[in-house]
Amino acid sequence: MQPEPGPSSPCSRASLPNGVCHCLGQRLQGTMGCEPAEGDDTPVTELVDGEVGAPSQPDRPHIARKQDSLRKNRPAFPWFGLDIGGTLVKLAYFEPKDITAEEEEEEVESLRSIRHYLTSNVAYGSTGVRDVHLEMRDLCLSGRLGTLHCIRFPTADMPRFLAMGRDKRFSSLHTALCATGGGAYKFEQDFRQMADLKLRKLDELDCLIRGLLYIESVGFNGAAECYYFADASDPECCHKEPCNLSDPYPLLLVNIGSGVSILAVYSPDNYKRVTGTSLGGGTFLGLCCLLTGCDSFEEALRLAEHGDSTRVDKLVRDIYGGDYDRFGLPGSTVASSFGHMMCKERRSEIRPEDLARATLITITNNIGSIARMCALNERIERVVFVGNFLRINTLSMKLLAYAMDYWSKGQLKAPLIIPHPNPRSFLPPIIHPIPPPSNSLFSFLKVPVMSILYSPCSPPLLSPALLVVRCVLALIQASTMYTNK
Amino acid sequence: MKQTVRRSKMAAPGAQVSPDEPGDAENGRGGSGGYFDHSLRLPSGEIFRNLANAKRFAIDIGGSLTKLAYYATVQHKVARVHSSKHSKAECLYEISEQQEESTRLHFVRFENAFVEACLDFVKGHLGGPDAPTLIKATGGGAHKYKELIEKKLGLRVDKEDELECLIKGCNFLLRNIPHEAFSYCKRSTPRFRFQNTHPDIFPYLLVSVGSGVSVIKVESEESYERIGGSSIGGGTFWGLGALLTHTKNFDDLLALAAAGQHTPVDMLVRDIYGGNYGVGGLSGGIIASSFGKGATAQDGFEAEDMAKSLLHMISNNVGQLASLYAKLHSLHTVYFGGFFIREHPATMHSISFGINYWSKGEVQALFLRHEGYLGAIGAFLKGAKEDEPDQYSWGENYAGSSGLMSTSPELFPVARSRSGTFDMLEMDRLARLVPLPLLRDPQDYVPDSHDLAQDLPACHYWLSCFADSLPGVARRAVASQSQSPDAARRGELFRKKFGEKLQILRQQPCAFGSLTVRSLLDTREHCQNEFHFPDPYCKVKQQENEAALRCYQAVVRGLDSLSWRERQLGLVRGLLAGNVFDWGAKAVTDVLESDPEFGFEEAKQQLQERPWLVDDYDVWLKRLQGSPHHCALIFVDNSGADIVLGVLPFVRELLSHGTEVILAANSGPALNDVTSGELSILTARVAEMDPRICSALSNDQLVVVQSGSSSPCLDLSRLDEALVTEVENRKVDLLLIEGMGRAVHTNLRATFLCDILKVAVLKNAWLAQRLGGQLYSVVFKYEPS
Q: What ipTM was predicted for this assembly?
């Protein structure tokens, strides 16, 4: 774990373990606004030093010299960031829009080919997808203006990606790629052998936190990034409200990928992995595929939208005929997920849609329950959900929002915060605040989940673009690296 | 229903399935071994015993298992001694066997498929004036089966809240059954580690994993609350499992899981990282995403593997939730119950792993040997308030209980194919038992010196030892009732029953909690009582007592003639020599049977010379030279020479110093140990010969109290309340524990707040060797407070 930086000089330390200052995004943004003010002492270059392990040189003349040198020696294009997860590979690509004619002339053929290939397509092969709605335009990065593209493909297609890198002679442009996620370790050797590329590995939890803060700081194409569902417990009134992450700490960060990691974040450099669960997005997709025969996340979600989980789950009223008054459980509470499926007759008449819906609710409820317990145990009032599981998954987002609201009933000063169901929203949900327990009737079992999930106020589905948080950070890293052709 | 019953594996233990012999069926009313169902035959006397005297009923019907509880009086024979009317007669006292009534709690667990058949059986055997009019019911099925129960039994069904029953049942078991709770560790030997019985059981967290999960915080008998839960529980395992594997039976799903591998189905950390995730501290084998490979599986998975993955997913999740709740409420004791666990090793392992992993070892998962009965016990207790069950202590009857995992096909393949899934628990009502206030560390007191399950050679030795001596023990039991026409038959039944128990313990040493010499001895006593051999040694004891009484005055005279210093050693040697007379020890039994004249003086010759194996005699002597003790508590051992020629002269010496003496003897018979009834007569007879004893008895300087135990061993955490009151009132400052069973097999390492003397002769060569000595080595252990 990284030590907390001193309060007086949050950015003055040079050798951060992964070379990324916690306020990297803001600083880059501010400094690289093409013309940094003279005498700006933002120690941007130290980050670079930090990355390459040079000793800290915080004195001003040195910095000025470094900045000058940065302009001349900025990393060569193309700038990529890779996040290789268990299920998906997320690729962030920065397309410079300010290329001069001179540069264009100098641009080698392979670079031009890559740029053209990536920006002129929205699909790559049968499985690669560019999420156009996620692209960040007019982004200033390391002094260059451009567009950030987000591309994803299944991790299973990694060999094809590597073959493409080899064919496009990527190694003639770069000797190293910035990568995070478990695959950065798993595929390191393949990158070297198949594509003649080294991987500069970044820790995924570091990237997650810093990427999140970066995106929050630069904004999303001029729009506010962070929203929450207000009145989440009332389907009629449920609506989105913007929220501000300027003072986010401490926060509980729940990253729902294939599995789930839960981090308590006290500052960008001071966080701990509190717990995790193996019941995550991979479980939802895996179980849906096995139960319904579907074969994609999108399809599984489409099924879930049209399902009825009460045909699958056993509710309290199925057992007690109504509410379980003795312990204050409403009859609509899910008592046993998939409980009806113990019965052969019910199994025989169940629809794939119902099964997908029940799976989604089961997994989401469980994550919410664990997140809530962690928030209470860690005494953190703000919970942020991120991760690919929530991509185009309004159902789960609302469910999480509702659950958090329900548990904290009567104890919340501020309402629940989760991401805006708007294509432009970039950031994950935030729950705020969850007070420490004062009575013990919290239970996910008590959430009458059905009412909210049938709510008619559900806006169009969208992607909160949560997927790119980590690869963006990797890309930023790439843009500040001195790499050679 | 018939179809279900016909499947061979559904048969009951001792019950036979006879699907093709419907003509065999007859009305089960009244007759022994009657048939009541065309396809299921329950020999009465093995399952649903004592129904004729059943007083109160309770039933807990879960998703797949039904638990029936009832309270019955049991007629059994006890040996009673009476002071002989003619004091000059040859007989010291008269022995008579009497019918006595005791109270027993019966619990029977069976599959729901048998509900109807079992209710018929119960109805057929009900009777007696105390027959109940009401049955307490709990569990999810109570609603569903209400009409059936009312119709079949003619009893009014009174429903009780499920969780309340669980908690009541849990409290009852934790308080009354030693070694009820255990932790499970797959990689240790034994896998089961039983917990000490703590006098204070609160607070704890009870995690009930039924169809869903309920987490209950229990702070006292009256104060508890449901602090949370989860919908991912046994129903999820069953439902999802059935969907994924097309296996509809819960036990079959568990069997599938036991045969599967989860790695083809789950995405592990190493599947993502290629190895460990070093920075995050996650090893490669950790599951990153349950069913995470489900989306990319080309040809699906093996059913076994999916079942295993599912089991892992659910148990881990339960463990995680439990550890989070435990942390939130600062609780360290977490008990798991509910049908999902059902003593299944993989489930217990997975939950234990989960809770240990997530709590970083701070919270330990504990399971209950009788978790399946919690609800039934609780419901029963709710209906039995006027019998005041809480005013008594209760003891597990090993003869009538099936033991842990009796229905596990893994552990008992033979038993399973032969029998099936009837499991039983019986508990006897005892006097109220409380811990000895002199224990230095009551929280950590473990009576037994040795957990045999942790020591395989010891385990083999003792199981063989008990098996080898069984024919002789059975013979002696039969001989003690030579006038009874069916003694031989009962003796054979006893031999068979205890033989089966030993067989079970060979396969599953932890079946009845920690396996100890004490538990083996107790099991044997219970089995003997079961077949109405309440006191096989009564006549032997009588003869030995008479013989010893005839020597008493000579022995006392001999001692009185010695100098003070010589007398002290003589008294101790007498104590030790008397202790050689022990029918419980095989080596001595052989000698006693072949040479009945083996006398007290000869016994002294057998003793090890000083220095003894454990020899604190000099310290003891020095203590005797100081101020006399105020009050001594002596737990006595054998009849005959031991008590009369060894202990009583020793007591006499203490009395002469002004020390008060409490003699604590067994409440009921065990081997040739003297019972409190016998001891009262013996002291009275000695008093006739010895004015010192006489005056001590009359002025209350010497009292005989029953210990509350009927075992050759001694559990100082469960003593008769009256004895403990005496101990407190008289301010005991010297404790003497005598004999191998009480001072070596148990209490050898126990520490006390007063002076303690542990005296025993090792009459077992194997044990003596274990302790570094040989046959007849002497343990004389004195520890000042």
A: 0.80
